[in-house]
Design a protein that fits this description.
heterodimer; A: 296 residues; mainly alpha; MetI-like fold; two-stranded antiparallel sheet; 13 helices; 2 strands; flat; B: 364 residues; alpha+beta; Rossmann fold; 2 domains; 6-stranded mixed β-sheet; 6-stranded antiparallel β-sheet; 21 strands; elongated
Amino acid sequence: MNTNNKKAWLYLLPATLFLAFFLVYPLIDVFIYSVEEGYNFASQTYFGTGLYNFSYVLHDPFFLQAVKNTFILVIITVPVSTGLALLISAGLSSIRPLRDLFQTIYFLPYVTNTLAVGLVFMILFQKTEYTDGLVNLILGWFGRGPVDFIDGPYWAKMFVLCFYTIWIVMPFKILVLTSALSSVNPDYYRAARVDGTPRLRVFTKITLPMISPMIFYLVITGFIGAFKAYSDAVALFGTDLNAAGMNTIVGYVYDMLYGDSGGYPSYASAAAVILFAIVLTITCVNLLASRKKVRI
Amino acid sequence: MKIVLENLTKTFPGRGKKDRNDVTAVDHISCEIPDGELIALLGPSGCGKSTTLNLLCGLEKPTAGSIYFGEENITELPPELRGVGMVFQNYALYPHMTVKQNILFPLENLKGKDRPSKEEMVNRAMETARLVQIEELMDRKPKELSGGQQQRVAIARALVKMPRVLLLDEPLSNLDARLRLQTREEIRKIQKKTGITTVFVTHDQDEAMSISDRIAVMRSGVLMQIGKPQEVYDNPASLFVAKFLGTPPINVFEGNVRGGMLYIGDEAVLSTEGVPDQEVFVGIRPEGFILKEDGPLTCQLERVEIMGRDISIISSHKACAGQNIRSIINAETKVDTASPSVRFALKPGKVFLFRKETEERIVF
């Protein structure tokens, strides 16, 4: 090893140590826990090694419910929020007056506390003994009966959760897409205008391909973020998500560690490993798909 | 297609913090561009030549005045109905499309009865590609092409819809020096072949002189002079035009006309019959000097540069407005490089007089 190489490793050392301690070691640890049956934090003992933890988790109805909830959440919120963000940012970049004001307004949810927003959503959607809530009031005008969105039927709760998640993740996407749109060289639009290109065609044939790397970035991070959803559900439905039937995979992991039914780090680790596998698979599929589509 | 500009004016609202006055980018330009010619809009940066081009293609709306293509007033028409093809300075080729898709793009925008069949579109694209010699590059992406090739694609894209007028914005500025020479010949050839009236913007007088049928010199929004390159060079209407055209640039002196004679310093250098007595600027082209032992103009010799075909004598004079005087002399002439001074006679056709105040030409 020559001196330059040694120097390079020396410079890399702080980052390497940091990553090794806080990222690589825990990751390996979780894998180890997930195969140690009946691991106990207090006594640091376990019965044996094997795949029983996985088998238990995969047969646990609460886990299956959590997987189902998470998948529904992902499949609905990622495309809807990205699509809406695209529409809004395209609209924003085509207006000149008040653009800054609108940008600020659209960005507000991003800087607002999740739990505070959850509280507001509860007030909007919850049906209590005293009031049906604002949303039900509006539904009433259209002759629809009051629905309890927080403690009621499954689809109503899922609707609120998706609505809430979309609302929370949109600002960041709008921010990224508006800056992507404004970085497109205006000469392309001028060239298109000289050729008399209709507006829709300009959008689909020029704008979209130009910002496609950013869209794929948002879709990939959106998938990852939605798979790791937990706090949103807590903000709306409280900490006992299993009882509400609105648990997510991360919620299940948390419950297994610290919840009322908790104290099972082995099961939690197994669930975490399964989530890791799912996210990894989806991300790889996404990247493969984007490699075919995005070429600038 | 003949192009006529009538009092064309474009002002932009002032944006500066201190200076809120409107900026006049194009100031009452009137001129006529004959059918089938190649016109260079020439001027320093910020003189309004690009704005003029944008007015022609319809990307900007004029504040006043009108534009005619042939007999048709197109001032109010949107770009797509004008029948113009535009080549942008950075070419603006769509990076995600192949060359073929780029060339087809304008055709695919056509609607109704103007829209050719799929087959005809491809035929026309191929035909245009052949014209600019890029037919073997059709499946490449723009970033896989050299600068010169990209430009040809841009020209093909502008030509494929058979425009009445072709507009080129600084077509050569993104190319290296060698390619520039080659490409300007190329542009000239394509223009001759197609016969389309072409307007191109440039700040390089060399480029403008070499390929255009006519050059229009602009300065701060005003059209200073329009004419055939040789005419404008031989007969500049103002000191600005005289200084802008020609490499090496014209030598400018401060002089005096007294009793029908032009004086530079104390020496009477040329007879200027009929010009009233006044102070003047004297412009002398580098090729307007004749080395002569008893010549009337005496300059301090600085150095001599040998350039093969001819030699260039660098000298100085206290009345000279620039730093040095550069004169170009046939290489067969002997120059005494040891002598401290050098004497010239002047060729009358290469000497121009300009009024001191207005810098307008005084014809004698």
